[in-house]
Amino acid sequence: MPLLEPNPQALRPGTKRTPAPDRVPELQARGTPRQLRQELTELLGPGKVLSSISDLVRYASDASPYRFVPQVVVVAEDIDDISTVLSYAHGKGREVVFRAAGTSLNGQAQGEDILVDVRRHWAGVEVLDGGARARIRPGTTVVRANAALAPHGRVLGPDPASAIACTIGGVVANNASGMTAGTTRNSYRTVSSLTVVLPSGTVVDTAAPDADEELARAEPRLCAELMALKAEIEADAVLTARIRAKYAIKNTNGYRLDAFLDGDTPVRVLRGLMVGSEGTFGFISEVVFDTLPLDREVSTALLFFPSLPAAAAAVPLFNEAGALAVELMDGNTLRASVSVAGVPADWAELPKETAALLVEFRAPDTQALEAYERAAETVLGGLGLIAPVASVENTFTRDPKRISGYWKARKAFVTAVGGSRPSGTTLITEDFAVPPDRLAEACESLLGLQARHGFDAAVAGHAAHGNLHFLLAFDAADPADVQRYAAFMDEFCKLTVERFDGSLKAEHATGRNIAPFLELEWGTRATDLMWRVKEAIDPAGVLAPRIVLDRDPQAHLRGLKTIPTVERIADPCIECGFCEPTCPSHDLTTTPRQRIVLRREMMRQSDGSPVEARLLEAYGYDAVDTCAGDSTCRLACPVGIDTGALMKEFRHQRHSPREERVAALAAQNFRAVEASARLAVAAADRIGDRVMESVTGLARRAVRPDLVPEWLPEIPGAAAWRLPRTHRPAAVAVYYPACVNRIFGNPEGVRGPSLPEAVVAVSARAGRPVWIPDDVAGTCCATIWHSKGYERGDEVMANRIVEAAWGWTAGGRLPLVVDASSCTLGIAHEVVPYLTEENRELHAELTVVDSLVWAADELLPRLDVRRRVASAVVHPTCSMRHLGDEEKLTALAGACAEEVVVPADAGCCAFAGDRGMLHPELTASATAREAAEVTARPFDAHVSANRMCEIGMNRATGRSYESVLLALERATRP
Which H or E run contains 194? Predict the structure, then answer.
């Protein structure tokens, strides 16, 4: 073991705990049973089999209220792996569940035996026919697919609220729809073809010209049974009419029996059945969608009503006026949404009875939109709208920023309300549909039902389609509370079916939650047919047993997960998974959700249990060390949970008092540290990369990888000892070169001025001269200490930089321009919690400006661009996202290049100061997709605005990244 290795016990939960009833039993502490692990490893290879208890626990939870710990997790890379696992399961009598994003709300992504990860290696989009169609792999998020289609003016039909995280495989397998899809734009209606691996291992491409012949050869019994079922259904006029009626409104409960009415061959029937089959019929390895026009002219309003039934009554009027989306939100939803960034604070004061409709019209051109707006104004004139708080406007707008804010509040429904639930309670998300003309009546009935059972639920939904969602919170560890929930569900299901002839699942699919109530909705005849379909396609019952079909009337109460209270910053988490795609470590170790899931399992355990001990051993590297600390998870989370901040706190907890003292000493003597670092970089230039790699490698093995950075060949040479000379009297801003730009010089091969020289030159050229203080050496934005959790060092440097900046800027009269986005973020925001009260007052007087903003807003309008390269690719940093500066980077790049490309897979590079040198594997994983996109074609320039991120991208792509300000200086040089 290396010296100074942190003690895992430092992160043991310190609170007194009562072991939870659903805790992982001690017998599972060693993870996957040896024989199962060995057999799968021999078949697939060790890198594809995850078997530690930490791996099993982190895959045990999804966005639903259920939790089932798998026996093993397989990370499948291709169809061969899928076929191998299915063959193994058949031979051993085992069960298989496929999991992609894990955003399902009813437990579809959980299994108790072999769980197969089909997200990590299954992303990709191919745009076909000029955007009219798209071939998409199942691990691709909806947002990523639409990003590829947007330049062609096209979009997918399904648009679930979880589009940022949910993947195409799950969308199709659940027939998820969303805000606008209804019954005409969902997957069932817009999937052109798909490729599926059946439980037997047979691969079917439904678009192949000879697909039916091939399926008949490979699966003659299946083809015969499908056609026999088709004939039987079509011969029953009453059943046929019933099936058509059930799909006249949104319905994802059970299997798509209308596939037998719509398909005329076994393959076409199978194509329809696969949509909404929830992984119980096979693995969908590829989907071809027929896309829809992306209407770019938009007009939207958020309209407030005195009650939920009043709002529901207005829905048909907007439907008739041509609205594409009419979304309903009740008072509980609106008030909970104040936790979402950008939502007016006075919504917290809205009366509980208030409700709102989010109404949107979309059109291909302005003339068509104006016609919609005139129709909408006519509707508005007859409504009894209210304005209970000052921020309410009740008007239509075309302002993209306001429209985005409205949708952000609506899409945060589950997470915002879930985040405000009482700590320690489990969240249930229900989803049903009624005929749209009975929506108001259904709302009244639902409110009465909730009151009778003591639930104060939140309600929202796709009102245009008669589809409502509501949330219930209860204590899954309390048998009495579970029974209260059970009694509610019994009455709710009967109400929906018997009074409204509605759908018990409109778009979230049956899952485990509604399986016991399937026959209540569909009747014995149709339900028996569904069982026969399952037996025809999966006779051995290998795939996802107890999902969709389950004869246990109490199945929806089995596996309910407790939610132990954890650290305050993470406690509101409902495990939705919205944070996962943005996390740099999501393909390497753990995601923000999984970090919290693992922490909760520690809290379920008795103090010192074998399971807790094993989880703690893995948590240091898997969760704490490989967290980039970029906090983009906070941006993705609708309620702003910052798992990165929690990991920094855990780093602090692992530090010994001696380590904290050394870090504080480094802060106090940073002038010498900075000079030493510059000397070391200069010496490395002379010694050579190979020697430096050897020396740092030995040191990392002797001490610990998380303390000693690995030398990388991409590290540039040393910066000049002296910064450019500037003059204070004429300056209109103070320029603060970040310490990384005082230590490191230009990238290898980049000739010309250094970044400080370029900033000074281009500012003077624009008539906006800047001044560099003489005493910047020895100061820093404090991010070095902040990112590593060294609180005392953070305090020292945070207060030093604020005091210095206040003096440099004459008490805040001049702006402080910072030339690294992460340093701008640090000085502008992250230092604040570590300041003294006096220095917080000084900080409030400062204007901290990122160099991107300075250049785009103050310099570019005053400069003459004299030369441009043909193309530039940009790397937006995570700090830019936090600061909201991304568009400034593209604007500056646009001044320097004819074509500017922002990679669709651009994300945090995870270099994170020196974390990419401490854990190079983290940056390699985080940048893999972006690097593939960048290296797929040549570019004349590669630009960003943070030195360490540029080093990370250099390493990832083999291309030379530089600050966009260097490119701007060249483009405007006389």
Answer: strand 191-197
